[in-house]
Amino acid sequence: MIRPDGVFMDGRSGAVPKANEHYSKPVAELRGLYHDGAAFDDFLRESPHAIGYEVAGYRQPGSDIFFGTTTMYPGKIGDEYFMTRGHYHVRDDCGEAYYTQSGTGLLLLQTREGETSEVEMGPGVCAFIPPGWAHRSVNTGSNPLVFAWFCQTTAGHDYGDIVTRGMRRLAVERDGHPTIVSNPAF
Ligand code: F6R
Ligand code: ZN
């Protein structure tokens, strides 16, 4: 029998003391994600060990759901804000919820059929990610963006399509403001 639990998730730092899964994603591992390759190389020369984001997860063996936090650090590569890799779920019937606890950002979404959408991320907003929609979060602010996510354990992550093609739309800074533009390379 799986036992119930109460799991504290710090809305400022993203720390989850009871998490049993963690990883940090160095910016250096995100080559090819950003549209400005020269800016990426410049950034890495200056900050070779920079961390883009960290993920902490709480999972009970045998459970159908798991959850945790993603903590995204602020920054830009050229004019493009720090972002997660972005993925589809392998299972087309699994959605997800992203509940923003602190910071500001944008959630970029798209379907395999070519539809796109964006949801603003800010404290108290819970983004509903329907089944079939790829999702990538972007930190458009100057503080960490912390959100809690809730997902099915068997959803699976399909990064391949986005690694090879990118996403249809990009979040860039224009005149000091976050702006969504079409990805010329898609
Ligand atoms: C799980 C989920 C999040 C992300 C995390 C990092 O389905 O959507 O936990 O995995 O925010 O983003 P990716 O995995 O796209 O690098
Ligand atoms: Zn997901």
Main sheet: which strands, in order across?
1-2-3-12-7-10
Rg result = 16 Å
- Secondary-structure class: mainly beta
Provide the number of structural domains: 1
The level of helicity is under 10%
CATH-derived architecture: Sandwich
Stretches where pLDDT is under 50 for at least 5 consecutive residues are none
Strand content: 35-45%
CATH homologous superfamily identity: Jelly Rolls
> What is the 3D form?
globular
Under CATH at level 1, the class stands as Mainly Beta
Number of strands: 15
Per DSSP, the total helix count is 2
- What's the main sheet like? 6 strands, antiparallel
User: What is the overall pLDDT average?
Assistant: 98
Helix and strand element order: EHEEEEEEEEEEEEHEE
Say which molecules are bound, naming each kind only once. fructose -6-phosphate, zinc ion
How far the N terminus sits from the C terminus, by CA atoms, comes to: 47 Å
Annotated CATH topology:
Jelly Rolls
